[in-house]
């Protein structure tokens, strides 16, 4: 799957999830993941991505419980659409956002601008509510989270690669 397709599919999923705010966003996430499984031609380690998804879900639940931000929509502890986003976001780290790998300062900057900007856009589209201080804090925290996600991804992949043999032959990315 090319980086441009990965980017376009994630952005489409983001807009569908944030604008529609329905449990159907989970269906889009499943389709996005299925496309990744089908077209990603290299050995794929899912454990690191699942851990990052879980960590992201916990982060947003804590933010909601602490009243830093309120997410709108049906769901158990958080809206289903937000769960869908956390299922697909880690798939961008090794594809459309792979240019950030090994660049912690750029990761931090992109975390503030991209991560904070996504939450700000979500509030403007009516998917979440917070105040200016809240969105500023979310942006600053994303400046810490994104480098942490890349660090965690690298460490977990190293452990995973040394512990288990690949299940598919490696091939260059298309």
TrEMBL record:
Keywords: Membrane, Transmembrane, Transmembrane helix. It comes from the Bacteria. The keyword Transmembrane applies. InterPro entries: DUF2878. The chain crosses the membrane at residues 12-34, 46-65, 77-93, 105-121, 133-153. This is Conserved hypothetical membrane protein. The lineage of its organism: Bacteria, Pseudomonadati, Pseudomonadota, Gammaproteobacteria, Oceanospirillales.
């Amino acid at each position: 799957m090319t980086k441009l397709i990965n980017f376009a599919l994630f952005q489409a999923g983001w807009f569908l999830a944030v604008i529609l705010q329905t449990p159907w966003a989970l269906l889009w996430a499943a389709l996005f993941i299925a496309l990744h499984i089908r077209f990603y031609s290299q050995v794929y380690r899912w454990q690191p991505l699942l851990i990052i998804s879980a960590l992201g879900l916990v982060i947003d639940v804590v933010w909601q419980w602490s009243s830093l931000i309120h997410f709108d929509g049906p769901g158990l502890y958080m809206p289903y659409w937000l769960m869908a986003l956390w299922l697909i976001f880690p798939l961008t780290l090794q594809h459309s956002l792979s240019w950030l790998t090994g660049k912690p300062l750029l990761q931090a900057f992109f975390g503030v601008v991209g991560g904070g900007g996504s939450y700000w856009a979500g509030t403007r589209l009516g998917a979440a509510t917070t105040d200016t201080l809240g969105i500023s804090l979310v942006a600053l925290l994303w400046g810490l989270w994104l480098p942490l996600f890349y660090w965690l991804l690298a460490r977990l992949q190293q452990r995973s690669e040394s512990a288990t043999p690949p299940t598919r032959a490696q091939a260059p990315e298309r």
